[in-house]
Sequence to fold (318 residues):
Amino acid sequence: MFRRRFRSLLRQAFLPLPRPAAVPRNAIHNTPPPLSPRMANSKFEYVRLFERPDSLLLNTWIVVRIDGRGFHRFSARHGFTKPNDQRALNLMNAAAVQVVKDLPDITIAYGVSDEFSFVLHRATTLFERRESKLVTTITSTFTSWYMYLWPQYFPETPLLPPLPTFDGRAVCYPTEGNLRDYMSWRQADCHINNLYNTTFWALVQQGGMTTQEAEDKLKGTLSKDKNEILFSQFKINYNNEPEYFKKGSVVFRDYQDFEVKDLLPQHSKSSTSTPKEKSNSQLEKGKKLAKKTPVVVEHVDIIQDEFWVRRPWILGGR
Ligand SMILES: Nc1nc2c(ncn2[C@@H]2O[C@H](COP(=O)(O)OP(=O)(O)OP(=O)(O)O)[C@@H](O)[C@H]2O)c(=O)[nH]1
Ligand SMILES: [Mg+2]
Ligand SMILES: [Mg+2]
Fold:
């Protein structure tokens, strides 16, 4: 009796693991599968089983951030002025405006240096929220426009290889608070880098230091120290530096007040305050309105509440 049970346990322990249902034998052994009515197109179609679904989590804010590849070298090769090249920043902004115009689901974008973050509304269903499709579309649309618009912004400077390319990534933020913190993080980074770069290049260009000497001087300094160096040595009041450089660039649709009511969720008159589902015609109307609304670029604070409170459609629409 005991021996029989022991044998059966032993048998069970060595039973082969069940094969995962989704991966057919032919996918592993590279032999053509038997044709089934569902795979009637060609014997090769089974290779689709290797593709993985990559839809981003529902009901989360999607941020696609693109960043220039090797722009340290690219900017030197094309003679960008230091620390900020107005033409280069204008070109980045112009390309970003085209991306926002092309994709109405982008509610806001923020750019600094060689990067841009594009925010897709948490309700978006664009490309079924497929990560690779969103990231590659936004990145390549931006890159194409950057190349196309180059001569307008650098009429005297031909574009030289290696041509500009951008990488892209998507991150989902589950709450409005997380998204606001992300945007604040990028803008705070802009301020920190700009203060550093402004002081660094003042020491080099006006103070006659080598880049190594300037780097050594700034090592371990705080913001107030850099402000002090700028003011005492170069009579530069950092607060008076252009907002463009201090705040970066915020790109968004500038709706008029009377249009905003069409964009925000309507609350039903019943006791519950759940927003009503929008009908298809309302959604279409919203899309049309988005298409004809000007996309603007501003250099304003997005860390404090004011920007968001004054533009409720950015986070509240849909
Ligand atoms: N002179 C000048 N350089 C700029 C300007 N904007 C961006 N850059 C350069 O672009 C670089 C962007 O930094 P990163 O994105 O961290 O570095 P990267 O060289 O692009 O390298 P990867 O992004 O890792 O490929 C800066 O360090 C600058 O060298 C500008 O307005 N003027
Ligand atoms: Mg870069
Ligand atoms: Mg960068």
